[in-house]
Amino acid sequence: MSANMPRLGAIVAGIAALGLASGCAQIRDHKGYVVDSTLIDTVRPGVDNRDSVARTLGNPSFASQFDRGATWYYLSRDTRQLAFASPRPVGQMLLAVRFDSAGNVVGVEKSGMENVVSISPDGDKTPTLGRDRGFLSELFGNIGRVGAAGAAPGGGTADNPN
C-alpha cells in the first residue's frame, strides 16, 4: 500500500497542474470582417464601383459619416487575453475603400497595427472644471444662502429665480 502512495501523489499533482494550466490559457478572439486577401487585392481604383465592391467584399463594417458614405471601412481585429485580464490586440486590418460622387472606386488603403493606440483612463474620477470643494464644504456650503439678504425673491438665484 505504501508503494502506491507516491504514484497517487504524482497523479494528484498532475491533475492539479492541468487544472492550473487550463485556467491560465490564452483566449483568442476574432472580431469584424473575415479577411480574404485574394478578394481584397481584386478591388481596383478606376475599375470597380459600389456594386462590384459590395458583391466582392460584402457589406462594409461601417461607412463614413462625414463625407456622406463616400468611404467604406472593413475592420478586422484579432485579440488575446489571459483569464480575467483585458484583451490585447495582436492583429488588425483596416481597409478603406473611397468612392467618388458617381460611385466609382478612387482609392483603396490598407493599414494594420500601426493605428492601434492604447489609452488608460485617469483612475475612477472624471476631472471637471470648477471649484474643488471638500466634504464639509459640500455638506454645509448652502447654509445661509437660501433667503439671505439680496437674494432673488422666491428662494432661487439671480440666474434661476424659481
Question: Top keywords for this entry?
Answer:
162 residues, BamE_dom, virion, alpha+beta, 5 strands, five-stranded antiparallel sheet, Beta-lactamase Inhibitory Protein, Chain:B, domain 1, Cell envelope protein SmpA
Word description of this protein:
Keywords: Membrane, Signal, Viral envelope protein, Virion. Pfam families: BamE. Residues 32-106 form the Outer membrane protein assembly factor BamE domain. This is Cell envelope protein SmpA. InterPro entries: BamE-like, BamE_dom. There is one protein chain. With 162 residues, this protein is of the alpha+beta class. The protein has a domain at 25-114: Beta-lactamase Inhibitory Protein, Chain:B, domain 1. It is built from 4 helices and 5 strands; from the N terminus they run αβααββββα. The chain has helices at residues 4-23, 37-42, 50-57, 135-140; strands at 26-32, 62-63, 71-82, 88-99, 105-111. Strands 1, 2, 3, 4 and 5 form a 5-stranded antiparallel beta sheet that branches. It starts with a helix and ends in a 22-residue tail after the last helix.
Compose a concise summary of this entry.
The protein is of the alpha+beta class. The protein has four helices and five strands.
Set out the fold topology.
Layout: H1 4-23, E1 26-32, H2 37-42, H3 50-57, E2 62-63, E3 71-82, E4 88-99, E5 105-111, H4 135-140
Antiparallel strand pairs: 1-3, 2-3, 3-4, 4-5
Q: Give helix and strand order, one letter per element, not per position.
A: HEHHEEEEH
Strand percentage: 15-25%
Mean pLDDT: 80
Shape: flat
In the CATH hierarchy, what is the architecture of the domain at 25-114 at level 2? Answer: 2-Layer Sandwich
The counted number of beta strands is 5
CATH fold-level topology of the domain at 25-114: Beta-lactamase Inhibitory Protein, Chain:B, domain 1
Number of H/I helices:
4
Low-pLDDT regions: none
Largest sheet: 5 strands, antiparallel
Rounded to the nearest angstrom, the radius of gyration is: 31 Å
Helix content: 10-25%
The separation of the N and C termini measures: 89 Å
Find the structural class using helix and strand composition.
alpha+beta
CATH class category of the domain at 25-114: Alpha Beta
Organism: Sphingomonas oleivorans
Protein name: Cell envelope protein SmpA
Pfam family, one: BamE
Keywords: Membrane, Signal, Viral envelope protein, Virion
